[in-house]
Every structure is written in C-alpha cells, then in structure tokens.
Amino acid sequence: MRLCFRRGLIHGIPIALGYFSVSFGFGIMAVRAGLTVIEAVCISMTNLTSAGQAAGVGVIAACGTYIEMAVTQLVINIRYSLMGLSLSQKLDSSFNTPHRLAVSFGITDEIFAVASAQPSKLTPRYMYGLILIAFIGWSGGTLLGAVAGNILPAPITDAMGIVLYGMFLAIIIPAAKKSRSVLFVIIIAAATSTILYYALPSLSGGFQVIISAVVAAAAAAVIFPVSEEGGEKS
Amino acid sequence: MNIFIYIAVMAGVTYLVRMIPFTLMRKKISSKFLRSFLHYIPYAVLSAMTIPAIFYSTGDMITAAAGTAAAVILAYFGLPLIVVALAASGMAFIVGFII
What we know:
Chain A is mostly helical.
C-alpha cells in the first residue's frame, strides 16, 4: 500500500478540522493583542505551530527583544527536532534533499503523529498531502478568527478545543492495546507530565512535554528494547 | 521594533529546529538504545501533550472529562481518527448543554 498524495489529504482532514478551531482562537487572540489581520495570517502561514505562535504574540505584545523571541521559539519548538529525527528514520528512498527541506516546514505535533502511525515508509507526496490540507486549515482558521472575531457562540468554540486531543487519543490508545511496552510509555509520560504540571507550574508547556516524553521513552528503551525492524521484545 | 522582523525571527527559528535534524540525518541509527528511544518517542510526546492538557481544553473540566471518556472508548474500539476526534468534541458540547 503506497502512501500517495490523496491519502495524505484524507488523513489530514481531522488535522485540518482541529487546526481550524485552534487557529480560529489564535486569530482572535492575535487581533486582541494589537496585530492586524494580515500580520496574524502571515504568522500562521510562516510558522504553522500553535504554542510557539501564541508565545510569539505574547513577546510582540510586550515589545520583547528579538533575542527573547528567538529563545522563546527555540525552547517551545525544540520538540520538533526530536520529531524530525524520529521521522528521518522512516522515509522512503525517494526523499531527496529538496523534498526534505520542503517537508520539514510542515513537521507539527499532529502531522508527526499521523505520519509516524503509518505502517509503511513515508513518501514525499503523502507528506505534501498531509501538510497542504493542514496548512489550509491552519491559515484559513486564523484568517476567519482574526476577521470575524466572536461570531461562533462560545459553547461551540469551547467544545472545539478538545478536537486535537481526541485525535491524539485515537492514535495512542489502539497502539497501547496492541503493545504492552507502548502502554508503559503512555502511562509514564502521562504521569510525569501531570506531576510536572502541578508541581512546577512555572515550567513552560514545551519543556513539560519534552521532559516527560524523554523520561518515558528512555525508560521504555531500557526496559523494552526494540529489535531490528520495529518489533518489541517484551 | 518591527513586526515583520519579529515574524521573520519566529519563522526562521521554528523552521531551523524542524529542518536541521530531518534533513541532515541520513543514516540508519545503529545504537539500539537510540532506535528504541525514537520508536517510543511519538507515543510519549502525544501522551504528555494530551494529559493533563485535555482536561483544560474546553474551559470546563466536566465537559472535557466527558469528551475524553467518549474518545477513549471509541479509540479503544479502533474507530477512525476523525470519528474519535469529532465525537470527543460532540460529547463535550452536549454535556455542556446539559449541565
């Protein structure tokens, strides 16, 4: 089963819907912070990331320095380096340097999640499909949020806040059902993240996720090492 | 302070952290520990991002818990991503109406 462009688009629909609701909120937030509609959309089209953009608007609103902006983005988005490294092990042989340079723009939490859940090697076309539809959802949501502000009633926008997390659960739970070691990883990561969230409230969300994920994945790598092609020994 | 320089800095840093490892890593990683680590990292990241944040995602813990429960049950039975994602949202919306 080859991963073609069309499959990428289809797999990207839930991402685009989730992004639409989140970026709608970002659009509202950016305009409230004093940005124009064009500036808000420009940020979404060039960054394609939620937490980093929200923090970036905070730096702009506070008239922070460019250095502060760079460090903030580095800390919050460094998880994408880990994701890029993980995805680099799963690429089809047709992934040359131009394809890598283009696709790396679209490594987000959700695209990474869907791509790494595929059983076969990743093709550039599949990744372009996935990224394109997510990009449209993200930019379109920002545009509408920035222009229309609060046209949607609050109960709907509130309920839309859970969409992306629902998608994450749909990825990790079936995997945990199949593999005891994945279940172990999920429990350790969730527990660590919850402890950090309440014990160290000043820790940024980005660091909270990085620390928890590294602890859980390292523990599993020691206890349940993976043999040559993905299968776990347990 | 120019807004477009801010945006360029944001976009530049964000692109570089994504691009460098993804583009430069060409070899198959030989370390068994590192390979295992990278095999588990997606699940670890998703789990850490979801919990506890999902319970704060709707602005109300009860509607969020209801949406989470719906997602967990449907995901357990292997329903497609979009069904699980929208059912979580639908459940949160309905419970928000009731309470």
